[in-house]
Amino acid sequence: MGFTPEDRQKYIEELKVSIEEQKQLRKEQDREKAARKMKKWEELTRKRKILGSVGLVIIIAIVVGLFSVLSGCAKTEVSKPSPSDIGSTAILAVSESDMVLVAVDEEAFEELIKASVAKDYMGIAELLLLGKVFEVPNNTKVLVIDSAFAKRKIRILEGDEFGRTGWVPYEFLK
Q1: Residues 6 or more apart from 4 whose CB is under 8 A from it?
Q2: Cα 142 from Cα 173, distance rounded (Å)
């Protein structure tokens, strides 16, 4: 049983039509699938925007709340001034000596610190002889009049050096 050329031609035409219909059907399915994906994407994007906005509002609320709590604590809590705050009176004290060295200016302070760290006792003596550093007794009362990183400018409030000013490490103030 063989196909005639016309039957064969008709069969080929039917196959072409069937293939074309399948292609159209696939294109339609792909479009529908793409439309569904696009709709899901839009929905997810919308949800992300909503969640992002809600998250931002929550973060802002937390920050404002923390700020309010912290500022409220600062208002209700009476803070005691530190002995090293400007305007405070303090006691100039070191544990390992009867005398405390006071530098007359910031440059002399830096020289004194360098000599102390290097354990250059002759250098410290030279600073004393040159008048860049002076001594006051341990536990001398002082007034803090200026502040810089890790050091404070003080005015001596008692003893032989009354009224003199100088720089000391802030750790010396009690």
Answers
A1: none
A2: 9
Distance of CA 2 to the CA centre of its chain: 89
pLDDT tens sequence across 19-61: 899 999 999 998 999 889 888 888 888 877 776 676 677 777 7
In this structure, what token pair is assigned to residue 71?
């500022």
Phi, psi of 157 (to 5 degrees): -105, 5
Q: What pTM, to 2 d.p., does this model score?
A: 0.54
Q: Which residues contact 90 (CB under 8 A, 6 or more apart)?
A: 83, 84, 141, 142, 143, 144, 154, 173, 174
**Bridge-partner residues for 155, per DSSP?**
143, 165
- 37: which 2 tokens? 């994906």
C-alpha–C-alpha distance, residues 26 and 35, integer Å: 14
What residue type is assigned to position 108 of the chain?
A: A
Which pair of tokens denotes residue 43?
A: 């929905």
As a three-state string, the secondary structure of 112-163 is: HHHHHHCCCHHHHHHHHHCCCEEEEECCEEEEEEEEECCEEEEEECCCCCCC
Task: Please give the Cα distance from 96 to 102 (Å, whole number).
Answer: 15
